[in-house]
Write a structure and sequence with these properties.
There is one protein chain. This protein has two domains: 113 residues, 3-layer Sandwich (Rieske Iron-sulfur Protein); 214 residues, Naphthalene 1,2-dioxygenase Alpha Subunit, Chain A, domain 1. Helices cover 20% and strands 33% of the residues. It contains five helices and 17 strands. The strands form four sheets. It has a seven-stranded antiparallel β-sheet with strand order 11-17-16-15-14-13-12. Strands 5-6-7-8 form a four-stranded antiparallel β-sheet, with no helix packed on it. The protein binds FE2/S2 (inorganic) cluster (FES) and fe (ii) ion (FE2). The site of fe (ii) ion has 7 residues, from helix 2 and helix 4.
Length: 344
């Protein structure tokens, strides 16, 4: 399986990294990570260049990893600093150090060519730091399926009527067509469901008495970040789309980390403009999202089993599939261009 390597991926929430060795796999690469005493998050290839023992099986001593087999020691930059029993340190006694960056309590890792790592390109939203919005980390959904299927699901507003009938969707949206757009590295799919009773999620939040206009804007940032802007507003207010923040608006953020070709971690969080100082609401929303995301997981893992049997992609394309079609094409193009540049 090929992945897009020149991209920032989420390695975990800030709370997941401490002054101890943590082994994880991203894009099929085994990585060992830890937080140094200065607070930096260090990420190294989890493989000793001597006999290939994972460095995560060793010890962290004064911000350096001491291999558990013969004691070779590696600093934060992956360079070997000690080989017990000899003075000479050969130039290839080192492991790759991955660039990392931490912001908004999220730890990012650059999986490609280190020279191209640019932290100003890391995904951000102004609402992360806006006092009128509440930002809350949810959980990590582990899916036994390929990241492309997860991403497709996150540029697909049509499935909510069928997969999430008690939380995010309802029969009112079944026949409403989906609109699409592309801007830069963003694929956008959206639709409005007007003048319908609020769905389960907005029966809980919004204090609506009558029908609402409900929106779903799905932004898929290549390669692996999805932002779903959804919400509801009283139909009687007849608010235009660009004033939807005056309604009850929620951003559900999904950071997909491909572990291997058939395993993906989707770390999700939400940012909302309602009940912003109420932690109980954050936890209640978590519960509703967990119901919905488990419904997605069940569908996506079934599809994965089927795809592995058939060894082919489906050939039937519907109008609702435009976003996922463009996504797969763009991903293939990125992977091809990285392979082309690597062979130069
Ligand atoms: S395997 Fe690491 S020092 Fe020998
Ligand atoms: Fe879903």
């Amino acid at each position: 399986m090929n992945f897009v390597k020149n991209a920032w991926y989420v390695a975990g929430w800030t709370s997941e990294f401490d002054h101890c060795l943590k082994a994880l796999t991203i894009l099929d690469k085994n990585i060992v990570m830890y937080r140094s005493h200065l607070g930096e998050v260090v990420a190294l290839d989890d493989c000793c260049p001597h006999k290939l023992l994972p460095l995560s099986k060793g010890k962290l001593t004064e911000d350096q990893i001491v291999c558990g087999y013969h004691g070779m020691t590696f600093g934060k930059n992956g360079q070997c600093t000690r080989i017990p029993g000899q003075k000479n340190i050969p130039p290839n006694a080192k492991v790759h150090a991955y660039p990392t960056y931490e912001r908004h309590n999220i730890v990012w890792i650059w999986m490609g060519n280190s020279e191209q790592a640019n932290s100003t390109k890391i995904f951000d939203l102004p609402q992360f730091t806006d006092p009128n919005w509440a930002s809350h980390h949810g959980d990590a959904l582990h899916l036994k399926c390929n990241y492309l299927s997860v991403a497709e699901n996150l540029v697909d507003p049509a499935h909510v009527s069928w997969v999430h009938p008690t939380t995010l969707g309802s029969a009112a949206s079944e026949d409403i067509p989906v609109d699409f757009d592309i801007t830069g590295d963003n694929i956008i799919a959206w639709r409005w469901i007007r003048d319908a009773p609020p769905v389960g999620f907005f029966q809980q939040y919004g204090n609506f008495n009558g029908n609402v206009d409900r929106w779903h804007y799905y932004y898929l940032h290549l390669p692996c970040i999805a932002v779903i802007d959804f919400g509801s507003v009283d139909t009687a207010l007849a608010l235009p789309a660009d004033r939807r923040h005056e309604g009850c608006q929620i951003y559900a953020l999904h950071f997909m980390t491909p572990v291997s070709k058939d395993y993906t971690i989707d770390r999700w969080m939400h940012i909302r403009n309602t009940a912003i100082n109420d932690e109980a609401v954050s936890l209640k929303m978590d519960e509703m999202f967990k119901v919905a995301f488990d419904e997605d997981k069940a569908i996506l893992e079934e599809i994965q089993i089927q795809e592995q049997k058939e060894e082919s992609r489906p050939t039937l394309r519907l109008a609702i599939d435009k976003g996922s079609h463009i996504y797969r094409k763009r991903i293939n193009r990125l992977i091809e261009s990285e392979a082309h540049n690597a062979s130069k």
